[in-house]
Amino acid sequence: MSIETDVVIIGAGPAGLFQVFELGLLDIRAHVVDSLPKVGGQCGELYPEKPIYDIPAYPVIGAQELVDRLMEQIEPFEPQFHLGQAVTELKRKEDNRFKLVTSTGTEFDTATVIIAAGLGAFQPRKLRAKDAADYEGKHIHYKITQADKLAGKDILILGGGDSALDWTLELYDKVNSMTLVHRRKEYRAAPASVTKMKSLAEQGLLREFHGMVREVLADDGQFRGLRVADDQGEMHDLNCDEVYAFWGLSPNLGPVAEWGLDIDKRQVNVDTEKFETNEAGIFAVGDINTYPGKKKLILSGFHEAALAAFGVQKYLDPDKRVFLQYTTTSPIMHKRLGVE
Ligand code: FAD
Questions:
Q1: Cα 80 to ligand 1 centre (Å)
Q2: Whole-angstrom Cα distance, residue 129 to residue 215?
Q3: 251 alpha carbon to ligand 1 midpoint, in Å?
Q4: pTM over cut 0.70
Q5: Any atom of ligand 1 within 6 Å of the Cβ of 298
Q6: Which domains are present in the chain?
Q7: Ligand 1 pocket check for 113: Cβ under 6 Å
Q8: Ligand 1 centroid vs 6 CA: distance in angstroms?
Q9: Nearest CA to ligand 1 atom 53
Q10: Which of 230, 170, 244, 241 is nearest to 206 (CA)?
Q11: Could you report the per-residue pLDDT of 126-176, keeping only the tens digit for each?
Q12: CA 256 to CA 248: how far, in whole Å?
């Protein structure tokens, strides 16, 4: 069963969120898909605590606060979010509409698509050591799905952020042995978690180790653990059954590159009138697009979203004459915004 709609927005970063607003003003509702489990794109994932100084009318606003404000602003237009799933397939159908499928199998039948995919879908930073890929999903993992199956095992957790520390604290007394490996002495995780981990390490209930992963250890293809260099360059073999790396997420253009769009240096070429790509009905806004003079700023994404909305409107209903209406004075805008 596919979800029938006028618009699917790929990406819930600031551009994708504001796109919902601009479409809403034109009475067009949207579904929004993001590979992350939460909205906000780079603002929410990479720098939620940092202040931004170049959002119009906000001398300063925290990145997460900006996301929260955008969510508040788009509320009247009731966007439907499909989070934690990447759009993996996008194809034009015979009837000229688009089939769009996500990594969890959600399928859309949509008239238009707006790609607001930023730098790409966020994916776990992976272990680059030789042969690591051969053991991915078998002994080297980037998420924990069945924690109860780890009882009795020797576990290595890599990382110094909240995910690494939270799982270390959650699992240390449920497994045979727990080692936390972090490359630096300083942690990014919540100080209370770090204090608790250090106290457990002092009591010998888990092991804290500082170093860089150098090699995957295996005997005749049988996974054995990781070889880690300490800060003096001395090698240590850390034997274990399973490794969980929590090194954060990094964006990857991924499937966007496979949809037959005109791409220049990992960005999608668009016109600057409607922000439409070389494929009629597929638009691109925010960091993902490029055109002469493009600047990768939130501000640019907002402007592009406004014009793309008019482009979508025209594509959906070419004969309808649409007049620009001010939100200040237009009764139609007030009705759509629910502020009558
Ligand atoms: P993004 O924020 O990248 O969001 C794109 C979303 O699309 C992501 O959530 C991603 O998961 C999702 N996605 C991608 N591919 C898929 C797929 N196939 N399926 C489903 N979802 C997908 N800009 C400023 O204007 N001012 C600043 O002060 C500023 N400071 C910054 C500081 C830092 C540290 C960084 C890293 C950036 C900063 N920027 C700043 C840049 C700003 O964050 C970006 O311009 C902005 O986030 C772009 O918004 P976007 O919505 O286009 O993309």
A1: 20
A2: 5
A3: 9
A4: yes
A5: yes
A6: 3-123+250-337 (3.50.50.60), 127-247 (3.50.50.60)
A7: no
A8: 24
A9: 118
A10: 170
A11: 999 999 999 999 999 998 888 889 999 999 999 999 999 999 999 999 999
A12: 22
